[in-house]
């Protein structure tokens, strides 16, 4: 069954395994910042925006040419820019990035361009959330796809997505983001998932290695750690800190269900009380077959079309499965598969079991 294949790796209760602190926490102030810019891709082979439907492309070209000393008629009427496409340029500014560093950028069409293949992005300012320019992007767009159309229209073939491309090292950092790392000889560790037990174990592991009072938890997510005052010693200290092994606490019982795709994922802590589950299918099929009645020749009658409706009801044999209390995840999966539950059926079954109080887990539907 599909559910067994999806959850086989979780079916056996595994002992707690130590993880590096680097995988459990992030350091406050060490983060990426999203950048975005509006630009133009030129040099397309007739696959650009249809300017009658994307007036902003014409406005952008007119404004750019005026800045370059080229005067166009008011409104740019009559321009047919088949080789130009308006795009949005996005990237992320890494932590501690300095002016002169290069970044990869993603170029995405915002008009009705058929393809960005072979185009060149013109110089585009990249701005942060504060409106300041942190980078400049320009370069040849590489599209990971191909498309072909028969002459005169008709048959066409498209492989992958043609309206999004990428420029490797296509942006240059122009402004650095100030970092408050280590201010006051303190750094803050932030757990990826809030957990008081895991936070306590991290504090204990740090203090065991560096001495009592070096680390203390502010809450179930944030831990403050004293660090050296000099920057080079602080960097070495953080590097050693990230390599400390910690046994994280066992996560709470949780079931994630995707109502659109029928996907169901459960962790190892899911258990059940004694309960009985009944599963059966009732299918109703309604068909309409048109029947044509024609009169005999020269009878003066007319052709009449009638609908012959047929309703079929089919009920599959249902089963009742008893699940004993304290069942672990492996038992739950085995029992639900035994009664023939599909992932879609499992959504309704788990919700009913939760309402009945037999399921000990948090349900989250996405």
Q: What is the fold's blueprint, element by element?
A:
Layout: H1 2-7, E1 19-20, H2 21-24, E2 25-27, E3 33-42, H3 55-67, E4 85-93, E5 102-109, E6 120-127, E7 133-140, E8 146-149, E9 156-159, E10 164-173, E11 186-191, H4 196-210, E12 215-217, E13 222-226, H5 231-242, E14 245-246, E15 254-257, E16 264-266, E17 271-272, E18 275-279, E19 282-293, E20 304-315, E21 319-323, H6 329-338, H7 343-355, E22 359-360, E23 362-365
Parallel strand pairs: 15-23
Antiparallel strand pairs: 1-14, 2-11, 3-4, 3-6, 4-5, 5-10, 6-7, 7-10, 8-9, 11-13, 12-13, 15-16, 17-22, 18-21, 19-20
Number of strands: 23
Averaged pLDDT: 80
Alpha-carbon distance between the two ends = 23 Å
The biggest sheet amounts to:
6 strands, antiparallel, barrel
Low-confidence stretches: 1-15
> Which radius of gyration do the C-alpha atoms yield?
32 Å
Helical amount: 10-25%
Query: Strand order of the main beta sheet, please?
Result: 3-4-5-10-7-6
> What's the SSE pattern?
HEHEEHEEEEEEEEHEEHEEEEEEEEHHEE
Shape: flat
Helix count equals 7
Structural class computed from helices and strand pairing: alpha+beta
Strand content: 35-45%
């Amino acid at each position: 069954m599909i559910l067994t294949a999806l959850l086989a790796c979780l079916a056996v209760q595994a002992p707690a395994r130590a993880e590096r602190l680097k995988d459990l926490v992030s350091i406050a102030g060490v983060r990426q910042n999203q950048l975005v810019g509006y630009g133009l891709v030129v040099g397309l082979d007739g696959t650009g925006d249809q300017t009658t439907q994307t007036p902003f492309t014409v406005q952008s070209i007119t404004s750019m040419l005026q800045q370059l000393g080229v005067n166009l008629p008011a409104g740019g009427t009559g321009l047919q820019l088949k080789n130009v496409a308006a795009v949005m340029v996005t990237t992320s500014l890494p932590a501690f990035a300095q002016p002169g560093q290069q970044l990869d950028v993603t170029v995405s069409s915002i008009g009705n361009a058929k393809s960005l293949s072979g185009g060149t992005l013109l110089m585009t300012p990249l701005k942060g959330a504060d409106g300041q320019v942190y980078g400049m992007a320009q370069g040849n767009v590489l599209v990971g796809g191909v498309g072909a159309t028969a002459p005169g229209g008709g048959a066409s073939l498209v492989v992958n997505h043609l309206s999004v491309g990428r420029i490797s090292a296509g942006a240059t950092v122009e402004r650095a983001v100030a970092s408050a790392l280590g201010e006051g000889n303190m750094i803050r560790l932030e757990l990826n998932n809030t957990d008081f037990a895991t936070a306590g174990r991290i504090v204990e592991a740090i203090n065991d290695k560096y001495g009592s009072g070096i680390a203390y938890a502010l809450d179930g997510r944030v831990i403050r750690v004293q660090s050296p005052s000099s920057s080079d010693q602080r960097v070495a200290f953080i590097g050693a800190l990230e390599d400390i092994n910690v046994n994280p606490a066992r996560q709470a019982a949780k079931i994630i269900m995707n109502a659109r795709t029928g996907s169901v994922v459960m962790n190892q802590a899911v258990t059940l009380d004694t309960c009985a589950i009944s599963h059966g299918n009732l299918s109703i099929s309604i068909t309409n077959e048109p029947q044509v009645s024609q009169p005999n020749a020269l009878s003066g009658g007319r052709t009449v079309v009638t609908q012959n409706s047929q309703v079929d009801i089919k009920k599959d044999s249902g089963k009742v499965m008893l699940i004993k209390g304290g069942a672990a995840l492996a038992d739950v999966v085995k029992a639900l598969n035994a009664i023939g539950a599909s992932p879609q059926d499992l959504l309704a079954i788990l919700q009913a079991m939760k309402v009945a109080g037999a399921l000990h887990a948090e349900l989250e539907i996405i």
